[in-house]
Amino acid sequence: MIHPTDSELEILKVLWKEGECSVRKVNNILSQNKDIGYTTTLKLMQIMHEKGLVDRDTSQRSHIYIALVKESDTKENLLSSFMKTTFEGSASQLIMQALGNNKMSEAELKEIKDLIDKIENK
């Protein structure tokens, strides 16, 4: 699987949330949080199309893009790659680092405990 760049991942997040989008719509959403020009968004999406990350419908004047990669698969692949290169493949080291460096709410801690219980009871 192709690993998207940070900028490509931002575009994929928009497409996963919104579904099919024009470049203009993606750019409008991205520009709410960062300074990005329309032509930059267009070029990125064209590159993503060449890489096979998105598909586009060119039957209308405004091209419509859709993600070809699933959010869950992309997250799994990025996390797996990060874990291998940063934590020598150790999920426990990754989790211990994440848990040790962040304050969590009671609700988040409960979610983690419930997940551990679920894993242990399989």
Mean pLDDT: 93
The major pleated sheet works out as:
3 strands, antiparallel
Note poorly predicted spans: none
How does the helix and strand content classify structurally? Answer: mainly alpha
Order of helices and strands: HEHHEEHHH
Total number of strands = 3
Query: How large is the share of residues in beta strands?
Result: 5-15%
Spatial gap, N to C terminus: 29 Å
Strand order of the largest sheet: 1-3-2
Instruction: Classify the helix fraction into a percent range.
Output: 55-70%
Regarding quaternary structure, what we see is: single chain
Tell me the radius of gyration.
Answer: 18 Å
Shape: elongated
Number of helices: 6
Notes on the structure:
The chain is mainly alpha-helical and 122 residues long. 64% of the residues lie in helices and 8% in strands. The chain contains 6 helices and 3 strands. It has helices at 6-18, 23-30, 38-51, 71-87, 91-101, 106-120; strands spanning 21-22, 54-57, 64-67. The chain has a 3-stranded antiparallel beta sheet with strand order 1-3-2.
